[in-house]
Design goal:
single chain; alpha+beta; Heat Shock Protein 90; five-stranded mixed β-sheet; 9 helices; 12% strand; rod-shaped
């Protein structure tokens, strides 16, 4: 519970409540026994006492169960009754009334009404504070859950890529030992970077592009003149934005995986910057009876949604396939 907020509310509301309570009496009475401002000052003091006592019992008593609330309310109204009684005794002792007081009931009803309003306001503030605390705790749990889910999604990429890379290496060993050696060296460098960024959610666009470029060179060793890639991203952009880790590499891998390209029908891939988006575009040479594993784009889209709340944009036309990923401005 935010006691500071309760104290601020008490200081602001006490004179307002006092003036509101006394206004009908003074406006309806042509000859009030005491000045209006003096009466407001006294009732403000009493109202503030009621506020402080109620804040005290709410702070030191755990008002969780129905039984505890009854105890709090009982103490609160007994204190209000005691304060009014004490004040009336003191006032009558210091300034004995010249005439008989018509009724002592009004001061007690007035104080109990003020106390009820105070309890309502305190309950409202306490409940709102508990709700905000619950929302904060829920938000923290949600963030932790999202982080765990992101890590799980990222971990799916490592065995997926490694399986394809080892299959490629095995094929090269049988056909071209020299290229297989070069491929192994590049693969080693690629995996070293992959391990160092494994725990990251975001990576600078510069690092991601460098990482992806290593992957592209690995694929060009494998496919030779059947795979071409053009990269056109300004240097200023590379230093100004972040991107989900493995995002570009996943899009390049997706294009290679889903197209049946050959030297006669090569795959042309373009990685471009356009209006705060990175676009990865390729011509379509679709494979027949392609078995979609769902790891690639679906994985990236889900990770991107968890990080930014947005989705990747897919433009699937008859002659080309384009995926746009909005870049994240560096803080």
């Amino acid at each position: 519970m935010d006691n500071n907020q309760l104290f601020r509310t008490a200081l602001i509301s006490s004179p307002i409540m006092a003036a509101f309570e006394l206004s009908p009496v003074f406006f309806l009475n042509d000859d009030p026994p005491v000045p209006f401002m003096g009466a407001v000052a006294v009732l403000t003091f009493i109202t503030l006492l009621l506020w402080l006592f109620n804040i005290y019992i709410y702070s030191f008593l755990e008002v969780k169960s129905f039984k505890n609330k009854h105890k709090t309310y009982l103490l609160s109204y007994l204190f209000a009754f005691f304060v009014v009684a004490l004040f009336l005794i003191f006032a009558n002792t210091v300034h004995p009334p010249k005439e008989k007081i018509p009724s002592l009931l009004f001061p007690f009803i007035n104080a109990l009404a003020l106390n009820t309003i105070i309890l309502i306001i305190i309950n409202s503030i306490v409940n709102r504070s508990k709700k905000e605390q619950s929302e904060r705790e829920l938000a923290i749990l949600k963030i932790k859950n999202l982080e765990a889910e992101q890590q799980q999604l990222i971990q799916q990429l490592q065995p997926h890529f490694l399986f394809n890379a080892l299959s490629t290496l095995k094929s090269l060993i049988n056909t071209n030992a020299e290229q297989a050696e070069e491929y192994l060296v590049r693969l080693s460098d690629f995996l070293r970077v992959s391990v160092s960024t494994h725990g990251n959610k975001l990576i600078s666009l510069y690092e991601e592009l460098k990482f992806t470029n290593d992957y592209i060179k690995l694929q060009q060793i494998r496919f030779g003149n059947s795979f071409f890639c053009k990269i056109d991203i300004p240097d200023m952009v590379l230093q100004s934005y972040d991107i989900p880790v493995y995002a570009l590499q996943t899009l390049v891998e997706n294009a290679i995986k889903h197209n049946a390209f050959t030297a006669a029908k090569p795959l042309y891939l373009a990685i471009l910057f356009k209006n705060a988006y990175i676009e990865v575009k390729n011509n379509k040479i679709p494979k027949v009876n392609m078995n979609k594993s769902g790891v690639g784009l679906e994985n990236l889209d889900k990770r991107y949604e968890l990080i930014t709340g947005e989705h990747i944009v897919i433009d699937n036309k008859s002659d080309y396939f384009l995926v746009s990923v909005k870049l994240i401005q560096k803080k």
